[in-house]
Amino acid sequence: MNLTDLPDHPPRILKLRPEAPLVKRVLYLGSFVMLAMVTQFFVNAADSMMVGRLEPAEATASQAALGLGMPLFWAVGGFFSAISYGTQAMTARRFAERRRARAGQVLFNSILVAIVSGALGSIIGYTLAPLAVDFLAEASHKQRELAAAYTQIRALGVAGMVMTFSYKAFFDGIGRTYVHLIAAAAMNLINVVLNYMLIYGVDDLGIPQLGLHGAAWASTMSTYLGLAIMVAVSVRRRYRGRFMIYRPAHLDVTVMRTIVRLMLPSGSASVILMTGFLLFMKFVGQIDAAAGGESNTYSAATAAIMNTAALCFMPLLAFGTATATAVSQSLGAGKANLAARYGWESVRVGLIAVTVVGLVFWVFPEHIIAIWAPNDPAVVKAGVSSLKLVATCLPMMVLGLVLSQALYGAGANLYVMVAEGFLHVGVLVPLSWLLGPQLGFGMEGVWTAAVVYVNCLGIAMGLKFLSSGWRKIRI
User: Fold this and answer.
1) Exposure of 474 by Cβ count < 10 A (0-12 exposed, 13-18 middle, 19+ buried)?
2) What is the three-state SS of 163-217?
3) Alpha-carbon distance 271 to 133, whole Å?
4) Contact in structure between 323 and 405 (CB atoms under 8 Å)
5) Of 112-126, 134-148, 338-352, which gets the smallest average pLDDT?
6) Second label for 409, Cα 20 to 30 Å away, from 225, 290, 318, 367?
7) Distance CA 301, CA 307 (A)
8) Any idea of the CA torsion for 92, 97, 101, 102, to the nearest 10 degrees?
9) What does the pLDDT look like over 167-182, one tens digit per residue?
């Protein structure tokens, strides 16, 4: 499906009727990315859901540990996996310019960068995990112990994750978004099987019950399976021959430098994002600590809400990724107005979807949280009002997530990094600290701060996309 064979007339932002041709193209690309992201999300969500079915005390402590371990893993892995932003934007533009060999050259150089940066990411993640957890864990000693071990094991998979994102960016950039869906589906299937065996143990096979440690090993092993599938697809003749990917002559320091230049602000934005959420979890842990008795209730409830919210922002990121491809290809074809129309049409689709989801969050909060914590009613009770708060900010989440990805596709990575950094340092972190443990509004105060942050992010990305500066960026 050609993304750029449409007229280049200016966008009409406030119109009600969507442009069917644009929506059709975004939905086509985005549906594969969405399914892949949701599937990949369940690689991580399976950890939380399955440890949540252990004995109540261990389940709650394990989920509280995941509330720290998962953002820590993504802080490190997300920084280096930001190689995907530059790789996708450059690939999409070269593809739109009908220079397939140059698109293959982008992937070749991206792979070389990914090998080095992925290995470095695994070393950094494994080394720093205990120190970071020791600073952040507030709820209980058990949370601290489990989170450190979980994060170290997951850090071993950062190298595979970065390589996978490099290949994913290439295939997304040329419009073959279904490739990562295949890999993600296989990853999820293997992860669930390994989770069951390693979390609960299999006596007949001599496998002991490893609990949260088993979940970490399962996720790490499934990551490398996904990478193997992506590599296998890339060496097929239709890609190896047409794009001439694996040619030593493609080695180009300038291409590498551009990939890294686009990676650094995007990766920094990811670190800032996860650091903000980690401090957010630290403040929730302080509320748990104030409750006494080695409580993990509020931390586990917050982890459940984050997992639930992820079911919204993962599809939004997927459509944002599809939009980034459409924006990049449109700019590569010299159609800046078409690029803008793709962004706003994706926002319209997202708004329709989250309206339905928000109603479900508001009407059935207890049932939703109980999916993550079926054996501890206290966790369910603690999270109900905060999940309702999250439902109120979903429309602005659409603006923030979809348009930030569209801006990445345009090459405006630095703006996104600065905006997210300012909002985390100036809004999310201080406000969650003030409204949560300091003024005594508890978990609802902390989540009120998160709602304010999401609304500010939506405004920041919406205003930037309304401007014309991003249309002139050259990469």
Assistant:
1) exposed
2) HHHHHHHHHHHCCCCHHHHHHHHHHHHHHHHHHHHHHHCEHHHCECCCCHHHHHH
3) 15
4) yes
5) 134-148
6) 225
7) 10
8) -70
9) 999 998 888 888 888 8
